[in-house]
Amino acid sequence: MDHADLAAVWLTLKLAIVVTALLMIIGTPIAWWLARTRSRLKGVIGALVALPLVLPPTVIGFYLLVAMGPNGPVGHLTQSLGLGLLPFTFPGLVIASVFYSLPFVVQPIQNAFEAIGERPLEVAATLRASPWDAFWSVAVPLARPGFLSGAILGFAHTVGEFGIVLMIGGNIPDKTRVVSVQIYDHVEALEYGSAHWLAGGMVLFCFAVLLALYTWNPSRRQTL
Amino acid sequence: MSRLSLLAALLLASIAAHADEVSVAVAANFTAPMQQIAALFEKDSGHKASLAFGATGKFYAQIANGAPFEILLAADDETPVKLEKEGLGVAGSRFTYAVGKLVLWSANADLVDGAGAVLKTGNFKHLALANPKAAPYGAAAIEAMTKLGVLAELQPRIVQGENISQAHQFVVSGNAELGFVALSQVYKDGKLANGSMWAVPANLYAPILQDAVLLAKGRDKPAAAALLAYLKGDKARAIIKSYGYELR
Fold first, then answer.
1. In this predicted structure, what is the pLDDT of residue A174?
2. I need a labelling partner for B114 at 20 to 30 A (CA). Which of A216, B4, B76, B222 fits?
3. Mutating which of B58, B173, B177, B180 best tests the A interface, going by the most A Cβ atoms within 10 A?
C-alpha cells in the first residue's frame, strides 16, 4: 500500500466515525418518536427514513448533486449562509452519508425501543421519574443492544459506501477519495495488485465487523 | 397445422433476426455520435447494434473477464493494442475511427475566453476533468496544464469524474464552474451548443487517437463486420465530423 492508499483508508475511517457519531445524535430522537408515536405521520416519516434502503445510490447521488449545486435548494441555502457549496467537500460527504446510512441506525434503535413496551416507563412514572429521567435511566439502558447494532451497522455501511461518493465527491485526495473509490481507480487503471490489497482488506474488515455484531448480539439476528 | 407452422416460422425469423445483433462497447465520449450512427446503421443494414457506454478501462476489465462484447470503440489506442496482443481482439482489425479534441468548457457563456487565459486568472473554485489514470481525456488535460505551467497552482481545485461524462455532468450542474471535456460533448451540428469554450491547441497534448477493434467474440459475425465497415463509410464519417472529431 502506498501513501495514497493509506490516505484513503484514514479518510474513510474519519468519515465513518464522524457520520456514526452524528447518526447516533440524529437517529435516537427519530427512533424514539417512531417507536412511541400514534401520529398518522408515523408511516410517512418511517418510509422517508427507509428510502435509502431501496433507492439505488445513483438516484440519491444524482439528486444530491443537483440539490447541493449552485441552482439547487440546498445549494442556495448553504451559499446564503456563507458556507459555499457542498459537493467535492468533506462536509458534503458527511451529510450525504448521514442521509444514506440513516435507516441502518434508526431501525435497530426503534426496534429496541418498541421491544421495551409501555410497562417499564409507566413504572418509572409511578416512581415519580420525569419523562427525561425515564428515558435516560430506563429506556436507553434497556435498548443498549439496539444502539450497539445501529452504531456498528451505520459505521460499516458508511465504510462500504461507493456510488454516492463517486457522484458528489470528485475524487479529491485527503478530502473525498475514500477506499471504495480508490479501489475503483486501481481497477480502472488495471492496477489489479493494489486493488487486491485494499479490496481484500475491506472484505476482512467487514466480515470482522459483522462477526462481532452477530457474536456479541445474537438477538439482532431476528430483526435484521 | 398452418397456425403451428406460422408460429414456427415466426420463431425461426426471430432467432435469425437476433443473430444479426451486434454488441458494442462504446467509450463514453462517443455516446451521442454513436447513437446516431447506430440508428442509421440499423436502417441501412437491417442489423441491430446494442450499445453499452462507459470508461475504456472498465470495458477492458470486463472483456478480459468474458463480457459478451463483439466490438470495442475505445477512447484510446492502447487498449485495443493490448486486447489484440492478449488474443481478445482480432489481429488486423484495428483502425482509428476518430481523433478526439480536448476543450476547456463552462456552462457559463462568459467564463471561458478564446485563449484559455481563465486558467491563469483563476476566477473559479472547481475545475473538472476525467480521471487521468483511466481516461485519455483526463491525461490530456493534465498534460496541457503541465505544458502551460499552471498544474501545480490549479491542483487543489481539480475535481475528477470517473469518466469524461461525469466530468461534463459536474460542469453542467454548475458544481464545477468549468472543466476539460471532449469537444464532442458540447458540440452539435458543427458548432458549440451552449456555454463558452476554449479549444485546447493540438501542440499542448498528444493526439487522442480513438481506435476500434473487433473482439474475439465477434470474429465470425456478419453484423460486427458490417458495423466496422459502416464506421469507415461516408455517412458515419460525416456524423463523426459534425461532433467535432477529426478523422484519419
1. 86
2. B76
3. B173
Q: How far is CA A217 from the centre of its chain?
A: 19
Please tell me the predicted confidence (pLDDT) of residue B178. Answer: 96
What's the confidence (pLDDT) of residue B140? 95
CA distance A172 to chain B (A): 6
Which residues make up the CATH 3.40.190.10 domain(s) of chain B? 21-99+208-242, 102-199
> Residue B102: which H helix or E strand, with range?
strand B102-106
**Residues of chain A where predicted confidence (pLDDT) is lower than 50:** 220-224
Question: pTM value?
Answer: 0.80
Residues A67-108: tens digit of each pLDDT: 999 889 999 999 999 888 899 999 999 999 999 999 999 999
**Under CATH, which number does the domain B102-199 receive?**
3.40.190.10
Q: What are the grid coordinates assigned to B111, written together?
A: 467564463
Which residue of chain A is at minimal alpha-carbon distance from B55? Answer: A188
Interface check for B175 against chain A (CB to CB < 8 A): the answer is yes
Nearest by CB: B159 against A84, A172, A187: A172
Which of A70, A171, A190 is closest, CB to CB, to B174?
A: A70
The CATH H-level superfamily of A3-223 is MetI-like (1.10.3720.10)
A70–B134 C-beta distance less than 8 A: no
- Between CA A35 and CA A116 the distance in angstroms is 10
Q: Which residues of B touch A171 (CB under 8 A)?
A: 131, 159-162
Q: Is A131 exposed, middle or buried (CB count within 10 Å of its CB: 0-12, 13-18, 19+)?
A: exposed
Scored b (16 or more CB within 10 A) or e, A166-184 reads bbbbbbbbebbbbbbbbbb
10-residue stretch averages of pLDDT, chain B, 248 residues long: 60 54 92 94 94 87 90 94 96 95 95 92 92 90 96 95 91 94 88 92 94 95 96 95 90
Residue among B58, B159, B173 minimizing CB distance to A66: B173
CB spacing of A88 vs B176 below 8 angstroms: yes
Chain A residue with Cα closest to B54: A188
Point out the residue among B57, B125, B128 whose CB comes nearest to the CB of A189: B57
Is ipTM > 0.95 here? Answer: no
- Topology classification of domain B21-99+208-242: D-Maltodextrin-Binding Protein; domain 2 (3.40.190)
Q: Could you write out the DSSP letters of every residue in B7-67?
A: HHHHHHHHHHHHHTEEEEEEEGGGHHHHHHHHHHHHHHHS-EEEEEEE-HHHHHHHHHTT-
